[in-house]
Design goal:
Largest sheet: 6 strands, antiparallel
Structural class: alpha+beta
Strand content: 25-35%
Shape: globular
Strand order of the largest sheet: 1-6-2-3-4-5
Number of helices: 3
Order of helices and strands: HEHEEEEEH
Number of strands: 6
Radius of gyration: 19 Å
Length: 151
């Protein structure tokens, strides 16, 4: 299940983040953790029974989004509105700059004016949800929210 896999991965990350020891056997200080949890939420297509727990992940403060998309086309999902996912396409490119041009290029060329939208029913079932925990408190809060709010 979505919750079982997510909680298992989170527990593994917690043990790795907290259990690392330096050469003098003193506990190492906590390091920020980027947690990407790969999931398969259906066989051939996305199963809607996973919709609510998956969409709820976007509301967590540790969320960095989700990697997924359509077959043979990866997208980075940053949120949702109802059952439509909001995404950025990492394949959008622009010509390379010459070093002499760096000062004269407006930074607006690096921003999109609109995000893409995709129906949840179009989502390929192979995805990865992402969370960034910068502190031990972030990690504990993520575990608590996953257990209480998502699962």
């Amino acid at each position: 299940s979505l919750c079982g896999r997510t909680l298992h991965a989170a527990a593994l990350v917690e043990s790795l983040a907290r259990g690392a020891h330096s050469q003098d056997t003193q506990p190492a200080s906590f390091r920020p953790v980027l947690l990407l949890i790969p999931l398969r939420l259906g066989l051939d297509s996305f199963e809607m029974r996973y919709a609510q727990p998956l969409l709820s992940c976007f509301s967590l403060p540790q969320s960095v989004g989700m990697i997924g998309g359509k077959p043979r086309h990866a997208l980075w999902f940053i949120g949702h509105r109802d059952n439509r996912l909001i995404y950025l396409d990492p394949h959008t490119t622009q010509p390379a700059l010459q070093l002499s041009e760096f000062g004269s290029i407006p930074d607006s060329t690096y921003h999109k004016e609109a995000c893409g939208r995709m129906r949840l029913t179009e989502l390929d079932p192979s995805i990865a949800v992402g969370f960034l925990c910068k502190t031990p408190d972030d990690l504990n809060d993520l575990f608590r929210r996953l257990k209480e709010d998502i699962c």
